[in-house]
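Homework-ish question, so no full write-ups if that breaks the rules, but can someone show me the predicted structure for this set?
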Amino acid sequence: MYGLKEDWSLDDPAREFVLDDYEGGTARWCSGCGDHGVLTAVQRLCRDEQLPPEKTVTVSGIGCSSRFPHYMKTYGFHGLHGRALPVACGVRARRPDLHIFVATGDGDCCAIGTAHWIHAVRYNMKMVVMLLDNNIYGLTKMQTSPTTKRGATSNTHPDGSMLDALNPLTVTLGITNASFVAQTVDWNPAHVYATLRAAHRHPGLAFVRILQRCPHFVPKLWDELTNDPNKVLLLDHPDGIPVDPAVARAYKNHQRHDPHDLGAAFQVARREDVVPIGLLYHNPDAQRYDEFSAAGHALQPEARLKAIDAAIDRFLI
Ligand code: SF4
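A: Not a homework solution, just the prediction itself:
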């Protein structure tokens, strides 16, 4: 017999969640789209961490990857273009008991949502932010995005993009109070899963850039990396992303990288000869704005009313 506990979770000690508890509708992404694998990784993570579906929220903005909440059988918010992060921060401020996953794309996060990206990273409220980066606007049919490489053609730049691409890793590392910055590739499920698990266990905002395949508009985008694993630099450290033996075998190019060293993280993030995957930077002790915004949540209704009255009385003339 189910009952509702005070925190609104279902009171059933025998509950055990299986994958089906997190699987929403059939994903309408193109066949071969990298978003499918990331969705599976998040659903597996929820199952393995036994996150109650009614305590889990997926938030997104606009774009192909932002269809994510529709395919999770949890609470979800498919918001406005670029506005996933302020919505997620609002959820976190009022409901610090919820598990929050944000799905955003390179157009959504790194163009129209840039200001929110900067401030959300600085606020460092607990959530997992997945930047699914395919270097293109997919939903609106192939326009240049901030992460499109120089020279790459698109419908807005048929002769090739003129500017160097924005690097989401160096931008995030440069934001005051950044606390978790990682990178992975959608075509390596074990590494995606291990990265998202570490992100979920981080106490603040975990920013994970996921290099994502878009076979529909940019089918050759990551060919260099998928054809030559030596182009991938696997970051390795006891405090980093645990490396599965199969992943270590797939990528022979390893580097010992201390994720507590911000200067070294910048150096790794700036490399152009290889693409680093793993945990670039981690500071679990960074300040968290949700610790302040949660003040008073535990008050009983009488005490809460008293506090509101006292606050209003400050404005009496
Ligand atoms: Fe995925 Fe690209 Fe298709 Fe969008 S257009 S669903 S990003 S493959």
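Now go work out the reasoning yourself. Hint: The CA atoms of residues 232 and 275 lie 5 Å apart.
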